[in-house]
TrEMBL record:
It is an enzyme of class 5 (isomerase). Its cofactor is pyridoxal 5'-phosphate. This is Glutamate-1-semialdehyde 2,1-aminomutase. One of its GO terms (biological process) is protoporphyrinogen IX biosynthetic process. It comes from Stigmatella erecta. The keyword Cytoplasm applies. Its main location: cytoplasm.
Length: 428
């Protein structure tokens, strides 16, 4: 596969953009080699600047559950743009999207729109602190909640790939207010809460983790965490930036029967445009300015073009059979990938919930940060490049989730599995 135009662009980009990219994991540091630059994408397929085509299993890291350039979304946002790209004043679409969000996710009684997942999580933490009057927060090792200062402590995702457990620039005084516990370990939380529970504003968690690769919660783990939080007056914050509207219409909270105090959303809710949201209990959300004293704002918050895309996306997902189809596609890939790995004699652990999956290159179960770290990242890198060469675009890191979209059909599944057969053989 020829990548000469990508290489030339990357050389130019590195002169003017740190690392040549506008978000670290795009730089392929986790897999080696140079990133591919894309010129267009429709449905399940992306075309790079050299004309190579790939089935996309990244979906822009989650938003593109309907595939690229999904016509009803494109039409909705063009139509909205014609009426003006931003007003900096309220508009009807925001009310409609807020109502739809609350109707779809029953724990959300009031919601505030923002422009990214990071904004949503940062605002949710401030609100939890403001509401409880407590300063500490609890997060889970390897979970990623965006690039906000309070979260760059034992964070997964790009931080993990780069091997930066903390970031310079995050004051130690702030970082020490972020407590961490291993994912899938309730006893650790119990011990921590017994000691410090009264000082902890909230626990924030990825219900199904995507940012160490996919980790599945053990049966009862999330419910147990919710109970422990209630017992200690700690707000239970579910970060549904990846899982919201993806694992079920009502997100992971619907799937696992949870009722978080606050939830954060982005990715799917914006239909591929910059849009995030945080919401939850009415009494808590009423503390947000101007109704209450906890400040949060944004010039482009509730942007009419982003809102139009989000509404079109959520309406399309309401079609019957959506989540059954995503589950079916995920299951086909899971079974096929496992079979190809086994046939080639390559040990793998495949974690999947619905349309989120990760193939770990190790033969031991992966359920927390420590077990994820056992994966052979060099081997993943070779697999990644073999797949790329066969026209499949996987997340360029062992510690990221692959996302299946509804644009993937039987032909794309066959294409992915044929590529995997060659890729696994090349490793054996
Ligand atoms: N929370 C989770 C669970 C995420 O996966 C991400 C991004 N991958 C974020 C928050 C941050 O979202 P954004 O990149 O839109 O700021």
């Amino acid at each position: 596969m020829n990548h000469s135009h990508s290489k030339a662009l990357f050389a130019r980009a590195q002169e003017r953009i740190p690392g040549g990219v506008n978000s670290p994991v795009r730089a392929f540091r986790g897999v080696g080699g140079d990133p591919v630059f894309f010129r267009e994408a429709t449905g399940a397929w992306m075309t790079d600047v050299d004309g190579n085509r790939y089935v996309d299993l990244v979906g822009s890291w989650g938003p593109l559950i309907l595939g690229h350039a999904y016509p009803p979304i494109v039409e909705a946002l063009i139509e909205a743009a014609r009426r003006g790209t931003t007003y900096g004043a309220p508009a009807p679409g925001e009310v409609e999207l807020a109502e739809l969000l609350c109707a779809t996710v029953p724990s959300v009684e009031k919601v505030r729109l923002v422009s990214s997942g990071t904004e949503a999580t940062v605002a949710a933490i401030r609100l939890a602190r403001g509401f409880t009057g407590r300063d500490f927060i609890l997060k889970f090792e390897g979970c990623f909640h965006g690039a906000g200062d309070p979260f760059l402590v034992k964070a997964g995702s790009g931080v993990e790939t780069l091997g930066l457990p903390d970031s310079p620039g995050v004051p130690a005084a702030l970082a020490k207010l972020t407590l961490t516990a291993p994912y899938n370990d309730l006893e650790a939380v119990e011990r921590l809460f017994a000691e410090k529970g009264k000082e902890i504003a909230c626990a924030i968690i990825e219900p199904v983790v995507g940012n160490m690769g996919v980790l599945v919660p053990k049966p009862g783990y999330l419910q147990g965490l919710q109970e422990l939080c209630r017992k200690h007056g700690v707000l239970f914050v579910l970060d549904e930036v990846m899982t919201g509207f993806r694992l079920a219409r009502g997100g992971a909270q619907e799937l696992f029967g949870l009722k978080p105090d606050l939830s954060t959303f982005a990715k799917v809710v914006g239909g591929g445009m910059p849009l995030g949201a945080y919401g939850g209990r009415r009494d808590i959300m009423s503390k947000i300015a101007p109704e209450g004293p906890v400040y949060q704002s944004g010039t482009l918050s509730g942007n009419p073009v982003a809102v139009a895309a989000g509404l079109a996306c959520l309406k399309a997902l309401a079609a019957p059979g959506t989540y059954a189809r995503l589950e079916q596609l995920g299951a086909m890939l899971e079974q096929g990938l496992k079979a190809e790995a086994q046939a080639a004699g390559v040990p793998v652990t495949l974690n999947r919930v619905g349309s989120m999956l990760t193939l770990f290159f190790c033969d031991t179960p992966v359920y927390d940060y420590a077990s994820a770290k056992k994966a052979d990242t060099a081997r993943f890198g070779r697999f990644f490049h073999a797949m790329l060469n066969e026209g499949v675009y996987l997340p360029p890191s062992q510690f990221e989730a692959a996302f299946v979209s509804l644009a993937i059909g039987e032909a794309e599944v066959a294409h992915i599995l044929a590529a995997a057969r060659k890729a696994f053989r090349s490793l054996a």
